[in-house]
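Per your request, structure below.
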């Protein structure tokens, strides 16, 4: 009879309180850092379970590689690593404790994700990969089990154990390394491997989320043959038209056999998908926010966890939200919001949460009839305190108002109407000025800048000051002040 090993009281400086998951080579624990007073996840490998010294050295190298790779990346979409060390016969990594569950668990439920959720997952993943690739780090094992969705709907990428560092050679034990169903052709052949292997994996992940099945199935040799030689049927064909054909071209390009035929980088693929997120929604489309629901016997708001590297038991599916209207959101109090105002709030929120901003704002507007309560409600989707406060300040500075139906209703005491452009603005917006602004924003944001400038221009109504305000609101905080300074020099 196999006995479960006891939970250690301490690993390194960390006190251990629970097991988050177990694997054949080690265990992931929930721990506590007594020096900084924060919860951590401790991923361990017991060297005695690995057998010979070669296996021990290989696994230790993977741990060191993971710590070094993630150490280069500072992004909320990547599970942070705090420490790497050894304690007796245990090699461990201390990492960010994530309250959520893996995308693999979510996809195990036999239901199709809404398009809004598919786009939200891909947007956050590709943003994180853009940062990783810029630092010369290629993950090489993008798959649902390595993506964690938090209670706030944030997607976090984990397990950089086999990541390839562009200027290092820490993991080249074998060129064929990764999870077969998500590996690019060049990972099987060992030729021409670079960051575009991650984009192929993103394509296969997108395919699975769209269709509910893997693009390539079978035993390892069969999967390898299919990836090298066959094309899977398009998502719109597999779903019999439930997914729009617009996804087919993006999936096909991401999963091209030749890396040169794929998107040049993660930002380009992200921009293509963002274009779909701005397309008019189907009249019957349903939107679902991916949020882990409480486990049996757990009260909402209590803390649970999923190991960043060990799959948790299958859970119940997330509850579906009601269908969301693409028009003005009507609250339960009989009032409706001005669509222009909701769009402004969506743009500010999208800076932090991506395409899901529209879903979050429109749903919250159903039950909140004043500016303060609405912005406070949607701000909870922003995990970082500083960014949450920045969002609130941005929205409140711009002002929000409601249009009462059917009788007048007082405006929020802290809200002011958005200035409306006059018929002949004193400082008109010209095509030349928009072109100059586009050049500035492109240097910071890449191809998506063209869309940002167009949207701000369309909403500004010919008012240059309003155009600048809207464009700055759409930018990440880190770039906003630099761009504003360069635009101010245009005169």
């Amino acid at each position: 009879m196999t006995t479960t090993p006891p939970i250690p009281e301490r690993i390194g400086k960390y006190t251990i309180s629970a097991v988050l998951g177990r694997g054949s080579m080690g265990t992931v624990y929930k721990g506590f850092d007594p020096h900084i007073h924060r919860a951590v996840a401790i991923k361990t490998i017991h060297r005695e379970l690995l057998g010979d010294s070669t296996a021990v050295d290989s696994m230790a190298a993977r741990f060191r590689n993971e710590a070094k790779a993630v150490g280069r990346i500072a992004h909320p979409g990547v599970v942070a690593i705090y420490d790497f060390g050894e304690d007796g016969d245990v090699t461990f990594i201390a990492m960010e404790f994530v309250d959520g569950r893996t995308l693999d668990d979510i996809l195990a439920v036999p239901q199709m994700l809404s398009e809004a959720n598919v786009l939200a997952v891909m947007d956050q993943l590709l943003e994180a990969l853009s940062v990783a690739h810029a630092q010369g780090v290629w993950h090489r094992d993008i798959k649902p089990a390595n993506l964690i969705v938090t209670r706030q709907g944030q997607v976090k990428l984990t397990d950089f154990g086999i990541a390839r560092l562009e200027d290092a050679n820490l993991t080249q034990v074998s060129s064929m390394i990764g999870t077969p169903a998500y590996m690019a052709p060049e990972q099987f052949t060992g030729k021409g491997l670079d960051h575009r292997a991650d984009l192929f994996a993103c394509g296969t992940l997108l395919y699975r989320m769209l269709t509910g099945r893997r693009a390539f199935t079978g035993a390892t040799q069969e999967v390898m043959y299919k990836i090298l030689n066959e094309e899977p049927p398009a998502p719109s064909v597999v779903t019999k038209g439930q997914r729009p054909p617009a996804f087919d071209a993006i999936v096909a390009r991401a999963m091209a056999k030749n890396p040169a035929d794929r998107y040049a980088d993660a930002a380009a693929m992200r921009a293509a998908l963002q274009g779909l997120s701005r397309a008019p929604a189907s009249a019957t489309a349903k939107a679902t926010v991916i949020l882990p629901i409480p486990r049996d016997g757990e009260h909402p708001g209590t803390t649970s966890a999923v190991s960043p590297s060990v799959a948790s038991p299958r859970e119940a599916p997330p509850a579906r939200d009601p269908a969301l209207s693409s028009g003005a959101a009507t609250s339960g109090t009989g009032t409706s919001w001005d669509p222009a105002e909701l769009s402004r709030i969506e743009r500010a929120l999208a800076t932090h949460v991506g395409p899901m901003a529209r879903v979050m704002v429109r749903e919250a507007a159903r039950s909140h009839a004043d500016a303060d309560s609405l912005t406070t409600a949607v701000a909870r989707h922003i995990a970082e305190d500083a960014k949450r406060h920045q969002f609130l300040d941005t929205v409140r500075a711009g002002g929000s108002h409601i249009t009462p139906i059917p009788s007048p209703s007082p405006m929020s005491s802290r809200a002011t109407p958005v200035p409306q452009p006059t018929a002949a603005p004193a400082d008109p917006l010209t095509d030349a000025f928009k072109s100059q602004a586009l050049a500035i924003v492109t240097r910071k944001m890449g191809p998506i800048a063209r869309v940002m400038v167009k949207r701000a221009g369309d909403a500004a109504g010919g008012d240059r000051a309003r155009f600048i305000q809207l464009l700055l609101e759409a930018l990440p905080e880190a770039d906003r002040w630099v761009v504003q300074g360069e635009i101010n020099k245009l005169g």
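The mean pLDDT is 73.

Regards,
D.
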